[in-house]
Amino acid sequence: MNRTRKVPLRQCIACRTKRPKRELMRIVRTGEGELLLDHKGKMPGRGAYICVSAACLNKAVKEGLFARHLEVKPGPALLAELEYLLGDRPD
User: Is 28 helix (H, G, I), strand (E, B) or coil?
Assistant: First the structure.
């Protein structure tokens, strides 16, 4: 008997669409209060998910969605890393 596994869904903080967890990027607020990009999705701390698109990143930064969901503003290093990862992808 083969069982189908349930695919965990998460919601993008910018466009509010639900997608499989693996299709989204996770941003984590650590215990020290800094924001980090969680590549594997298993870091401890409060997390927020965002689509892998420049449009969602721009909306999240413009409207202060990271600060609203994680209670910390992202630093320039994190924003630069996210822009670099999304730079060569179409919207």
Answer: strand
